[in-house]
Amino acid sequence: MTSPGQVVRRGAGRRAAAPDPVAEGAGAPAPSRPAKVPVRKVPLRTRLRRDGALLAMVLPAVTLLAVFAYVPMLGNVIAWQSYSPYVGFLRSPFVGWANFERVFSNPLFLDAVQNTLVITAFQLVFFFPVPIVLALLLNSVVTPRVRTTIQSIVYLPHFFSWVLVVTIFQQIFGGAGLVNQTLRGAGLGSGFDLMTNPDTFLVLITMQSVWKDAGWGIIIFLAALSTVSPEQYEAAAVDGANRWRRMWHVTLPALRPVIILLLILRLGDALTVGFEQLILQRGAVGADVAEVIDTYVYYQGVIYGDWSFAAAAGLIKGVVSLALVLGANKLAHVFGESGVYRRS
């Protein structure tokens, strides 16, 4: 038998002799990383045989895109020529940057740029938030069955052509429209003609855009909201967050990537504000308020036959639009969002 003192000394000896994991970790060499397994490249013939069915499905779309989108880009060479369709761009003389100088020195083009930017800024403030607000209301207030019904009704005008949209607004807000007839019948004056008033043209085209395309935006934002887990709302409610707090701290952060992506695309499309919508109403309100870059290029190139001048103006618009997309995407990266494409 051993005495209690011997037991303590033996335990202390065992404790003293026990290895120190910290000391061993400090003195031991760092574990080596596992060697990378070399990736074996699959031969091109094997990949073509493996993905042949998928490539065959994509080939018609790629062919159409190449023929109608990329091949016509070669025609931009006429922006540096004095182009005549009777001799073609192979025999048309080169004039260098003269067409671009004409574009920047033309006051009518500058007026068209100003109208384009004013319309874009106005619709960015009064049209872009509308689908977001409607999606939030439908997602938080209405039951699923009513939500689907309202969504279908609001989305229906997206399939209407601009000719039909302008006609409907003419029948409602025109000089002989439903609103004016109602006002005259009630003895409230002679009415008004919203369709031919240049002072309210900006409000008119924004109303038309909201009525036609707000439903499309609602679908996009509702799809983004469907990815939010209900457990996040339940956890926020348990923590005491009311409906507005849940919307601010749960719903809006889920929508932020989609909002930024659509905002970037909208900025890239800032110089394109609806050619068909505006050219249909240009004659009624005048070119002073309805002339934008697209309609100006159309009239200069197609109507007046100044093809080189119109090509130079359109090329400037494309370069500026590309710069806006890249700049907005870079700004999204600064704020930690993915944007149109992720950083490498």
Walk me through this protein's architecture.
The chain is mainly alpha-helical. It is built from 17 helices and no strands. It has helices at 4-17, 21-27, 44-50, 52-70, 98-104, 107-126, 129-140, 144-155, 162-173, 178-185, 201-225, 230-238, 243-268, 275-285, 287-290, 293-303, 307-334. The longest helix is centred in the C-terminal third of the chain and has 28 residues, at 307-334. The model is unreliable at 1-18 and 20-26 (pLDDT under 50).
Topology:
Blueprint: H1 4-17, H2 21-27, H3 44-50, H4 52-70, H5 98-104, H6 107-126, H7 129-140, H8 144-155, H9 162-173, H10 178-185, H11 201-225, H12 230-238, H13 243-268, H14 275-285, H15 287-290, H16 293-303, H17 307-334
Helix pairs in contact: 5-17, 7-11, 8-11, 11-13, 12-13, 13-17, 16-17
Which terms would index this structure?
single chain, 344 residues, mainly alpha, 17 helices, 67% helix, globular, disordered N terminus
Write a short abstract of this structure.
The protein is built from 17 helices and no strands. The chain is mainly α and 344 residues long.
Low-confidence stretches: 1-18, 20-26
- What is the count of helical runs? 17
- Fraction of residues in β-strands: under 5%
The amount of helix comes to 55-70%
* Major sheet size, sense and barrel closure: none
- Average residue-wise pLDDT: 82
Overall SS class: mainly alpha
| Shape summary | globular
Taking the alpha carbons of the first and last residues, their distance comes to 72 Å
The topology string of helices and strands comes to HHHHHHHHHHHHHHHHH
Secondary structure: number of strands:
0
